[in-house]
Amino acid sequence: MADMDADTAANTEPSVEEEEAFFSNLDLFLFSLIIGLVVYWFMSRKKPEPIPEFKKLDTPAPTARETSFIEKMKKTGKNIIVFYGSQTGTGEEFANRLSKDAQRYGMKGMAADPEEYEMTELARLSEIENSLAIFCMATYGEGDPTDNAQDFYDWLQENDDEDLSGLNYTVFALGNKTYEHYNAMGKYVDKRLEELGAKRIFDLGLGDDDGNLEEDFVSWREQFWPSVCEHFGVEALGDDSSIRQYALKEHTDLNMNKVYSGEIGRLKSFEVQKPPFDSKNPFLAPVTVNRKLNKAGDRHLMHLELDITGSKIRYESGDHVAVFPTNDSAMVNKLGQILGVDLDVVISLNNLDEESNKKHPFPCPTTYRTALTHYLDISQPPRTNVLYELAQYASDPKDQENMRKMSSSSPEGKTLYHSWVQGACRNILAILEDMPSLRPPVDHLCELLPRLQARYYSIASSSKLHPDRISICAVVVEYETPTGRTNKGVATNWLKNKLVTDNGHKSTVPMFIRKSQFRLPFKATNPVIMIGPGTGIAPFMGFIQERGWLKEQGKEVGETVLYFGCRHKSEDYIYQEELEEAEKKGVLTQLNIAFSRDQEQKVYVQHILKENKEHLWKLIHSDNAHIYVCGDAKNMAKDVQTALHEIGEELGGMTRTQATDYVKKLMTKGRYSQDVWS
Length: 678
Hints:
Layout: H1 2-8, H2 25-44, H3 69-76, E1 80-85, H4 90-104, E2 109-112, E3 132-140, E4 144-145, H5 150-158, E5 168-175, H6 184-195, E6 199-200, E7 205-208, H7 213-232, E8 246-251, E9 283-292, E10 301-307, E11 320-323, H8 329-339, E12 346-351, E13 366-367, H9 368-375, H10 384-390, H11 397-406, H12 411-423, H13 428-434, H14 442-448, E14 455-458, E15 469-475, E16 478-480, E17 486-488, H15 490-496, E18 508-514, E19 528-531, H16 538-552, E20 560-566, H17 569-572, H18 576-584, E21 590-595, H19 605-611, H20 613-622, E22 626-632, H21 636-652, H22 656-668, E23 672-677
Parallel strand pairs: 1-2, 1-3, 3-5, 5-6, 5-7, 19-20, 19-22, 20-21, 22-23
Antiparallel strand pairs: 3-4, 8-12, 9-10, 9-18, 10-15, 11-14, 11-18, 12-13, 16-17
Helix pairs in contact: 10-11, 11-12, 19-21, 21-22
Binding site for FMN: 86-91, 138-141, 174-183, 209
GO molecular function: flavin adenine dinucleotide binding; FMN binding; NADP binding; NADPH-hemoprotein reductase activity
EC number: 1.6.2.4
């Protein structure tokens, strides 16, 4: 019975009448069920399958980490790396020139975007013999790093215990003296690397775009390389021949669906739009409004509206909209005619350095026509390195000599370049027209020309009122050069021709948003003083719309004061109706306008500031007002600051030094913001 008890302990006990039976019916059923389950389990178990032997694929092992510039340098035998912080492409262009130079001095260099690499590896650069890091760092806005150098800047700030004692470095800074924080980023990187123990092997170079940035760079570079050779004990090879970076491949039977037709990043991204939209994936915004703002005069001031419905793009008043323009088709056709090429040939320019992250100078495969229309800058005077590389193709020895002279750092060469190229505003087309013996291969020309960059405009609307609309205010650039040619601004003339039609066709603009620090105060009760002559009024149209919206929401809004300037009331008093309506509604508490040429003596915004000095000083000194300046950096912004210094002296009882410091403190506290250009 012991066995039976064990088997039935967990089941219903048998009744007295059934005790004589060895197994009850229920026991038999359960026993059969268990046996069946056990058999099923054994039968259904899969036998271990033999693992087939696959032939090992002969593929190259991946690098230790894709973001390791050290491993890449070791693999390719490079000892010089040139990092660039670049917003408009010039810093990147200088970095490429320096990395190319290295070959002429018996070394090997690579240009690198700090955003693509792990910058903590700078401490490991000493693992490579005779290594050197060069930094070409541009300053953007009010002393800020460029977008691609932001993470590097943050890393430098946050890592006080970083040991860079084995790092050799030098810095060339790109800036503009008209700005308050001249070359701030380059100066900071130079100073900070030294603080972290790195060794500066050549003096900081300062490039001034308000003067002659190209000349500054060439002069610095010609002293820099001999110093590097001396430091590392190497001799220059003396090889001044042209060095090609890309190889041409012509495609004869490529499917046109695989050919770039103007896209910035992903192929066919303009046909199938996918958010998020940014500088590498712009949104094609339809133009819904394009109207001339000025009533008369020889200029063309325009207001455009871009429809961003369904794009998920968000913006705030004070942000910038960036647009990707295209070159004038007539210029592109003339280049093709002069060089005698079929512009519709499909080509690729492939980097000879297979390890480089930059496989092509622009999206490839594409046609010469697309490259010259969408990707390359053909309107700006070419830099000296372009002249140097193209000189070999001049059949006239005199032309060859002059081109080489202009690309040198000799006083005579600098003077010739300044007068014949820069002063005369000769772009590459004008140079080819005026130098008939110069006929370079079009592929080499495409390799050398800089990329056509996005253009930034202060947004002239508020997303509070217009979440699906972005407004642009701009003046069309057009002028006659000393050679009698008419030069046209690439972006403004392109925008001018983005017409709104009734036939259903919509002109589109590839665009994205760049966030700004140019912001209304957090507290709506703070007074705001806006100073923006000409198209400098753009962000203030957004500010006025937003302050008006806040008032409509029942919020208490502080004083909103505008100082605007233009030439003539009857000609270029832009947004007159909107401004006067805002004043009528009490959104603008004060509308001050300087019509500079409506009287014998010119009157500018700074003059009206001084006329209203008592009210202005009260708003700034007592009422915690925020000051905003937008427009010309070279003259207007400086004159406005001088006017405020003088008001501080007169009404604040300060010395000039104290008044200057007072305004600087307003900037530091975020109460004095500038959105200026030169």
